[in-house]
Amino acid sequence: MLNFTRIRTQSRNCRSLPLAGKEGMDYSDPKKKGNAIGKVLVAAGLVTFCLVMMKQSPTFNTPTQFSHHEPGVTHVLVTGGAGYIGSHAALRLLKDSYRVTIVDNLSRGNLAAVKILQQLFPEPGRLQFIYADLGDGAAVNRIFSENAFDAVMHFAAVAYVGESTLDPLRYYHNITSNTLVVLKAMVLHGVHTLIYSSTCATYGEPEKMPITEETPQMPINPYGKAKKMAEDIILDLSKQKPALAVMILRYFNVIGSDPEGRLGEAPRPELREQGRISGACFDAARGIIPGLKVRGTDYKTPDGTCVRDYIDVTDLVDAHVKALEKAKPGKVGIYNVGTGKGRSVKEFVAACKKATGVDIKVEYLPRRPGDYAEVYSDPRKIRQELNWTARYTDLEESLRIAWRWQKVHRNGYGPVLAAAI
């Protein structure tokens, strides 16, 4: 059974009950006085019953394995753990015997992904899910007070460049402000290790390739700006709190899915227009959309389309786990997570056609606001310091693995299509 907790201030069945009565009640009348006393006793009995039932609940003020530190066990809070990257990270942590708490408001995540993880790791004390919004400071503080976290992997964020240009305030609130809420709770409750999921969008459009960790950060869209602001807050805090162990991972364009087919990418239907190119390719291959829209063919690149560094999600979560293992108090590590090789959008589409076996129709459109021409990483630092190297670097193979999941999950995490298995 899924260990599911929803943060609320009152029990749904035990909200305060108003005492019935009449204005101008004559308390000198013994019958009326008796009625009032009877109603008070009934109400008191109901409240007592509620309290008894709540105390019988296994989640009411009962210490659990999640609420105390245990020697040899690292308890990781994974924010946004119901999302595409967060769920894959949670899977890897659970496989490596970490204790995991997922916090997600499900605005972009999928509860079904969490249920799959629970089915894979049903043992008590392995995984719990808490439905909460990181923008709710009281809820976040309560989560930290009721759980003994050793580290935080902070993935939760809206993450579409185009959408950020249309709704910038949402991005600054969701990314920057919510990160501040998490940091305050960490400080208040003595959680000293943070693995922060950042982005190459903080670099903007550098003049020189490849991008190193020393490349100036000059983001050109609200998504990148919000992430950089969050990074700056984290860096300032680390100077004032020397006990903090911080790792900031700036990763590039994520593709792929779990090689064993347990998890995949399933964005909300209304976000398909803003989503990753891999999702759009698969939607076109399945006939969900009539074709693929490529935005921008006049960039200063070899074929005129954007060049990106595509990192497989399995490699990405491996980098996060290695960062967690190497995090040290008083140290801040900043790393680019990429393959070191740029691929154009046209190259990506060609690989997607081969992976799916479908001759996808392509429509070329004007540029999308906030996009940049060319971005790819120099991964030497992370290789030297964390002993991490991307292994899934065959673009077509990563897409083929993801396509297997997509074929049987036409409705995302909805019913599996038996005919396609």
UniProtKB/TrEMBL annotation:
Signal peptide: none annotated. GO terms for biological process: galactose metabolic process. InterPro entries: Epimerase_deHydtase, NAD(P)-bd_dom_sf, UDP_G4E. It comes from the Eukaryota. SUPFAM superfamilies: NAD(P)-binding Rossmann-fold domains (SSF51735). Keywords: Carbohydrate metabolism, Isomerase, NAD. Its cofactor is NAD(+). Residues 76-338 form the NAD-dependent epimerase/dehydratase domain. The keyword NAD applies. GO terms for molecular function: UDP-glucose 4-epimerase activity. CDD domains: UDP_G4E_1_SDR_e. Belongs to the NAD(P)-dependent epimerase/dehydratase family. This is NAD-dependent epimerase/dehydratase domain-containing protein.
